[in-house]
Amino acid sequence: MTSVVATQFLPLASAADATRDFTVVSLHDVAPSSRAVTDKIISELAHCGVRVCSLLVVPDYHHQGLATKDRQFISWLRDLESKDHEIVIHGYFHERPRHPNEALRDKFLTRFYTHQEGEFYDLDYEEALRRITNARDEFRASGLTPRGFVAPAWLLSKEGETAARDAEFEYTTRLRTVCDLRSGEEFPARSMVYSVRNNWRRAVSLAWNSALFPFVRENPLLRLSIHPPDYSHPAIWRQILRFISVMNETRLATTYRDWLAEQRSTAGAGE
Hints:
Helix content: 40-55%
Distance between the termini: 20 Å
Number of strands: 9
Low-confidence stretches: 1-19
Number of helices: 10
Structural class: alpha/beta
């Protein structure tokens, strides 16, 4: 755990020891094209008391060009990492082309649930490993230290999970779980997330998360996932800030990296 994160724990040590309650706010689809809005989100979250986030960075978002070739973007990421934000690899291209003769379930998950962005939904092991290791090596060469891999839309095949483990990533997440890739342990923790592609999706997201929040706020780990377009919809953003205000009353904001380190430390102390 970094020194800044450790310092955050000191004023609330007794509450943390008693409840072990934490919040991870993850910012998805971070790329050069979304840098400006992501920077605004980070600033507003800091103003609301969320000082660290897990930043899910796409190496080559929709084939727009390698993020690591953008010097200003990489410098920005390194600065955020130095302030204890976490850099997480989020797929590689963040898109999946349609396949012929897809089953109905596959069409639903890759076209309706996510808009053709389930890149790692059905990749075979070799291709998943190639993309994951390429991203890892590109990020490391740029002075970044990613420890987690998260598939777009959390659609990660078993082969993809094995590839992430073999590439020596420490964890992955899915919609309902956080998985320690070292031990194989899965921690139940459903994420709150929004879909804002059209009016009815926004309305359903607001109603669904309003109903879901009383249940997930009882979890030791509360996850809130934010995408750049969320910021452009006032009703969505107001609800997010309301949730954060409630979270901050009893929880500590952390990153997946540091939360997992805390779980391992606690488990080791109990052995």
